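Write out the 3D structure for:
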Amino acid sequence: MAAKVSVQRTHVQTVRSVKMVGMLPLSRIFALRETVDQEWRSPVADAVGECWGLPAGALRFWRSSAAHVFVAPPGADSRGVLYARFAPAEDPAGYRLAEGARFHARLAAAGASVARVVPSRINTMVERIGTPLGDMYASVLGKVDGDELDVEELDGGAAAAWGAALAAFHQAAGQPALPVQSKQTDPFAALASARAALEDPELAVAARTLSTVLTASPATPLVFGHGDFELDNLRWTDGWPACFDLDESGTIPAAADVASAVRDLLGPRPGSPKHPELLTAFLQGYNRISGQTIEPQELVLPRAAFAAQQLLQATEVLDISSPSVAWLHELEGSLRTHYQIQHDLLLMTADVLV
């Protein structure tokens, strides 16, 4: 996976990949971080925790990326280790968190392999809460036991189980309300007219080219997908993963959900997978459960679509700069590097698909 950046503790940690769509603006991350004291406590988190019966100071800062995440560490609560996730209610990230949490609760009730959802004191899975930084949508999950695997730790069997688990997720989610066959949305057309493209003629040409390719593509099966079924959102027990972080879930083409999951296996060069054997095993595992055959070449255009979505959000995310704040300056630099990688991937994809 390309570099996921998140603020964790006092530094910026490069974990694996910026979220497919939903990185919080840097100003939101900075504002929250300014409320965190030397013991990693925050009055914002305390307001959230109160709705789940947690005393002030129980939640400690963990990271901020697509949402703010605080953890109640071992011994802080009888319910075990808890992760409180929240995002501004007036920001798209808040809406995504709320919708993803409701979907997560529905899957958990159906017995799907997902993290445990912890209800609030009034027995709801999502709360809208007034805090010192404004209203937040919040949800709380229990810690998922199990191992976190990196690509380097995968073998063919684990990759096949990963693919099978995504297919099982699609089955548990049920059929989307929209027609079974549908065109993808077109982020390339939006990017072609965005300010970034106006300032970069080469990007504009590539975006228009890919929009034409997408328009000519046949309709594909839709699923209610996870949207970010990457390894860092999974924990493994006895060869099978449980998932969390459903903020990007929604109705999307099956190939798009697969492409978002296997970005690490695809690598930075479209049409030339970085880990072809593992990718083949993943797709075979997906086919075994779903009955749907997805070929590696079907992932090239959806992968570029994710890159276009992220480039469309770059200006909104990079809304402040502060060289004097080391962690913020480092985070901004990591994001700019990530967006450049997405830019280059989009240009290369246009060359491959013409």
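The CA atoms of residues 281 and 298 lie 16 Å apart.
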